[in-house]
């Protein structure tokens, strides 16, 4: 190889370059769907678009179609299988690489990329995944039914010993043939992603849709046997009468199941570079957010880093989608490893327009994403039916680089964003989002609440806590009051409210902490909240005041602290309406910690990132029914005026109140909105031609205006 790559490291979810953090800008290219003769050209096109790294799945079924033959990742049996050559070509193009070997990958491949021969219908020794009713969980296989549609096949239980050994054998081959020989500094591989959106793209499912196979239940019993008194049984119905302790135990099992598989699969690959995962955002159904919070606990993963995906639809058009996306971005520091930049036919037609894609990506960055991925950056049109027999060509239909290798209109938007972050990425990464509050939650409360599957707004009689239900209502209330916020898992030993707020480490007395509570809360968690108040922090409790530990023993530690605290620093709101409670909490937070940036004219969402040296970065997002003129004021008395299209997005760099760089969208073709984009601050105005993307460094007129 001609290029030497930096030994990769991560700190606080950020990739480190030259000793400094910066956003990780990546694009996906499914080499297995393209002719090998195209690989080098397309990789060079991605490099010209400004990305740092190419990401790619490594489909098990593609590299080991027959059980009796070993995996081939070096092209011995077919040049299309030469993943090692692909990453060497990435290095020649100046790109790093992130490889993603699954074992399950989705990626619109037959049977999610699993080889046919690991299906329980082909190998009866392999258990299927079972749901709470005992029915197999399925995925579309590689065969058609009489109607020409894919036949659903049962998925193999991840903890089944037979399947487990097959998975480990595959991942060992990936490590031996691809990852370890081609990892930085001598090769371009800087990270490995294992699993996909959970295990089987199940990271958003309800707790009742997790695995109830014999091997999974055996793991559940092993996990809880040390607690004494006999292991609790998993819940066997979705009815509300399930014992809350059973619900908590089952949620704990699912969190540990993800953690165990992530750890084991990562260790089996044996990479010396970081290992990451890509959790999908919570689903929209009742109980889904609670299930997601209960199960998604990155602190359990022993060095496997958090990441997330999109696939919630266009957030500028759907408030529910936006809430789910924002929560995924805020849960923990990590990259968005799949942002839809290519699919408008298979998914939502809004994504044919580059402004939709830019809006989603900027929102993720504003909410805490440490990087993003153009999924996919390159379109392809040559693959065989053994890989994918059900999807139309090209794949995808509207990527930045078309299947013939030519740039599409999305390439300009992708390049503009990458260039903005190349100019200011370290500054952005060192800076901190200015947030007004932190929402704390205890994951077992979410596990208890998930099974009730209550609808938002329904009054809660506190037979179970309102955890995800409150967080969802809080998102809407915070948006109304223009409050940015962080999330804090009370069990996470590595963070405190200050970290979740995006500020310097250590306790910060001005951070309001908002926590949905319930009658059962163990002493360590009560002590944690009590110490926040004792050290001068502000606290809002929503729901029942905790009075017992999980064994039913009296525990009034938090109640005692609240009763004796300065009433101007604490609030307990017991009203069971989560919508009302979220509004009350948001109003109080606004009094305690007013938003650092607010929209005072027009309709948009604004996020402020404060950086060293008197620099601020603003992210401004217009909804589908918004756009036009938007004026923002910051807590430092800076006023910024923008003109952007409906569903548009803007990034603005301010140095001592003067705009020095910006991206502003002037056209959303999907929404039929066009405008002359502009931004004005500190006596400087940038404008661009009608219906174009304002890029202050290339396509813009700069002028001085009276302040």
Class per helix and strand makeup: alpha/beta
Largest sheet: 8 strands, parallel
Instruction: Note the total helix count.
Output: 16
What's the end-to-end separation, in Å? Answer: 55 Å
Radius of gyration: 25 Å
**CATH architecture tag of the largest domain:** Alpha-Beta Barrel
User: In the residues, how many domains can be counted?
Assistant: 3
- Number of strand segments: 32
DSSP strand content: 15-25%
By CATH, the superfamily of the largest domain comes out as Glycosidases
Task: Note the quaternary state here.
Answer: single chain
Q: What would you call the shape?
A: globular
- Helical content stands at 25-40%
Walk across the major sheet and give the strand order: 10-9-6-5-4-13-12-11
The CATH top-level class label of the largest domain: Alpha Beta
Give me the CATH fold name of the largest domain.
TIM Barrel
Mean pLDDT: 93
């Amino acid at each position: 190889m001609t290029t030497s790559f930096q030994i990769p490291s991560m700190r606080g979810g950020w990739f480190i370059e030259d000793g400094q953090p910066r956003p990780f800008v990546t694009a996906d290219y499914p080499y297995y769907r393209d002719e090998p003769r195209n690989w080098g050209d397309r990789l060079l096109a991605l490099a010209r678009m400004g990305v740092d790294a190419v990401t790619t799945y490594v489909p098990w079924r593609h590299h080991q179609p027959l059980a009796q033959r070993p995996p081939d990742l070096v092209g011995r049996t077919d040049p299309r299988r030469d993943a090692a050559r692909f990453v060497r070509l990435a290095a020649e193009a100046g790109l790093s690489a992130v490889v993603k070997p699954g074992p399950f990958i989705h990626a619109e491949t037959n049977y999610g990329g699993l080889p046919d021969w690991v299906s329980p219908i082909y190998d009866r020794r392999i258990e299927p995944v079972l749901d709470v009713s005992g029915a197999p969980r399925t995925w579309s296989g590689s065969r058609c039914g009489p109607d020409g549609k894919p036949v659903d096949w049962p998925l193999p239980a991840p903890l089944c010993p037979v399947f487990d050994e097959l998975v480990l054998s595959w991942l060992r081959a990936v490590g031996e043939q691809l990852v370890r020989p081609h990892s930085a500094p001598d090769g371009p591989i800087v990270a490995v992603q294992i699993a996909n959106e959970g295990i089987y793209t199940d990271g958003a499912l309800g707790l009742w849709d997790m695995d109830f196979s014999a091997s999974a239940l055996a793991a559940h019993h092993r996990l809880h046997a040390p607690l004494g008194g006999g292991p609790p049984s998993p819940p066997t119905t979705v009815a509300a009468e399930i014992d809350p302790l059973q619900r908590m135990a089952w949620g704990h099992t699912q969190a540990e199941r993800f953690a165990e598989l992530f750890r084991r699969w990562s260790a089996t690959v044996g990479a010396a570079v970081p290992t990451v995962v890509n959790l999908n955002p919570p689903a929209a159904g009742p109980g889904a957010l609670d299930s997601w919070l209960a199960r998604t606990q990155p602190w359990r993963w022993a060095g496997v880093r958090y990441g997330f995906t999109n696939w919630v639809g266009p957030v500028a058009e759907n408030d529910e989608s936006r809430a789910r996306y924002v929560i995924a971005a805020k849960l923990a520091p990590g990259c968005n490893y799949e942002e839809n930049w290519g699919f408008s036919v298979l998914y939502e037609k809004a994504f044919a327009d580059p402004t939709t894609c830019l809006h989603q990506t900027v929102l993720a960055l504003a909410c805490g994403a440490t990087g993003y991925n153009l999924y996919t950056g390159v379109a392809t049109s040559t693959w065989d039916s053994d890989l994918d027999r059900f999807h139309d060509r090209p794949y995808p239909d509207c990527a930045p680089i078309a299947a013939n290798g030519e740039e599409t209109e999305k390439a300009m938007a992708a390049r503009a964003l990458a260039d903005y972050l190349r100019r200011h990425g370290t500054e952005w990464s060192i800076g901190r989002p200015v947030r007004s509050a932190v929402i704390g939650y205890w994951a077992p409360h979410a596990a208890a609440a998930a099974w009730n599957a209550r609808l938002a707004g329904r009054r809660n009689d506190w037979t179970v806590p309102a955890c995800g239900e409150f967080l969802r209502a809080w998102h809407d209330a915070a948006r109304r009051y223009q409050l940015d916020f962080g999330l804090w898992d009370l069990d996470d030993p590595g963070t405190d409210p200050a970290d979740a707020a995006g500020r310097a480490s250590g306790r910060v007395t001005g951070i309001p902490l908002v926590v949905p509570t319930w009658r059962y809360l163990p002493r360590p968690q009560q002590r944690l909240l009590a110490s926040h108040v004792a050290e001068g922090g502000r606290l809002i409790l929503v729901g029942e005041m905790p009075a017992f530990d999980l064994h039913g023993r009296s525990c009034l530690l938090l109640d005692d602290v609240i009763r004796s605290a300065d009433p101007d620093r604490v609030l307990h709101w017991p009203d069971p309406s989560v919508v009302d409670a979220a509004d009350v909490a948001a109003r109080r937070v606004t009094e305690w910690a007013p938003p650092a940036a607010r929209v005072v004219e027009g309709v948009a969402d604004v996020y402020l990132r404060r950086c060293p040296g008197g620099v601020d970065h603003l992210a401004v997002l217009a909804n589908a029914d918004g756009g036009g003129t938007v004026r923002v004021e910051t807590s430092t008395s800076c006023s910024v005026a923008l003109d952007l299209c409906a569903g548009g997005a803007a990034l603005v760099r301010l140095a001592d109140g003067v705009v020095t760089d910006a991206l502003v969208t002037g056209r959303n073709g999907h929404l039929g909105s066009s405008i002359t984009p502009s931004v004005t601050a500190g006596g400087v105005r940038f404008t661009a031609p009608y219906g174009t993307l304002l890029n202050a460094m290339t396509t813009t007129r700069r002028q001085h205006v009276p302040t």
